[in-house]
Design brief:
CATH superfamily of the largest domain: Vaccinia Virus protein VP39
Largest sheet: 7 strands, mixed
Low-confidence stretches: 1-6
CATH topology of the largest domain: Rossmann fold
Number of strands: 9
Strand order of the largest sheet: 4-3-2-5-6-9-7
Strand content: 15-25%
Shape: elongated
Helix content: 25-40%
Mean pLDDT: 95
């Protein structure tokens, strides 16, 4: 089958890694698993041997057709579509419970897929995903580290993320120019716990992380928030005006939003 690099296809050929990804989901004998980017079916096969049902989401028409021929329809459903348009909530309702997710994410749309999963959190319990190592470093980063930023907070607000293992380029065909890391994401949104509103807080995060080299004060001022209000909120929380968003824990960012909203 011809390769189509434009679709970001680097097919996993390390079958041990496929088994480890499926195994990281835990006991899924009675569960429905969504696989993102099924490709040539390396992970699909490992999932089908463990799960009650697998929905393999694959955009490529030829690959989807090949998957339909290889796997029994009773165990594996092939959804030939873009995962960014996939209705996780509908599948969860049909399955009678929250879903498990696995997949080798295409590099070029990794961040949009992660945000899609975050937006679908109510339908999801756990995801085991292979991403570029640099992306894994960002989504698991701690405050104050070089990799900590908007993507880190956007993902961690929806649950804890842990790195599991890293694979070299030789584990794929064609081999990419980067290493890949498998992460496990447990969906447990923190908005209610922190007393913040999801959409409004996400807008606030985009404001404070807008320019990485700028301070909180300057980014918020650029967003149109009056300097006196910013200064008052920072002083209330004991945050220096030269502080950048990258230095603050999620809890502190939430407290800052509450202070600016007059709710703290």
């Amino acid at each position: 089958m011809p390769l189509k690099p434009k679709l970001g296809q680097n097919f996993l050929r390390d079958m041990n890694a496929a088994e480890r990804i499926a195994g990281a989901l835990g006991d899924c004998a009675s569960r429905t698993v969504i696989e993102i980017g099924a490709g040539r079916g390396a992970i699909t096969g490992a999932l089908a041997a463990r799960a009650a049902h697998v929905v393999a989401v694959e955009l490529d028409r030829e690959l989807a057709a090949d998957l339909r021929m290889r796997f029994q329809q009773e165990r594996v459903t092939i959804a030939e579509q873009n995962v960014l348009h996939y209705d996780f909530a509908r599948t969860a309702a049909q399955a009678g419970g929250r879903l498990l997710v696995a997949g080798n994410l295409p590099y070029y749309i990794t961040s949009p897929i992660l945000l899609k999963l975050a937006a679908s959190h109510a339908a999801l319990e756990l995801a085991v995903l292979m991403v570029q190592r640099e992306v894994a470093d960002r989504v698991t980063a701690a405050p104050g580290s070089r990799d900590y930023g908007l993507l880190s907070v956007n993902v961690q607000m929806y649950g804890a993320v842990d790195p599991l293992f890293t694979l070299p380029p030789s584990a794929f065909f064609p081999p990419p120019q980067v290493h890949s890391t498998v992460i496990r994401w447990r969906f447990a949104p923190r908005f209610a716990e922190l007393g913040i509103e999801e959409d409004a807080f996400q807008r606030f995060l985009r404001q404070v992380f807008a320019q990485k080299r700028k301070t909180l004060l300057n980014n918020l001022r650029a967003a149109g928030i009056p300097p006196p209000a910013i200064g008052s909120a920072l002083a209330q929380l004991g945050i220096e005006q030269r502080t950048r968003a990258e230095a603050l824990q999620i809890e502190t960012l939430a407290s800052l939003w509450l202070a600016l909203e007059g709710k703290k």
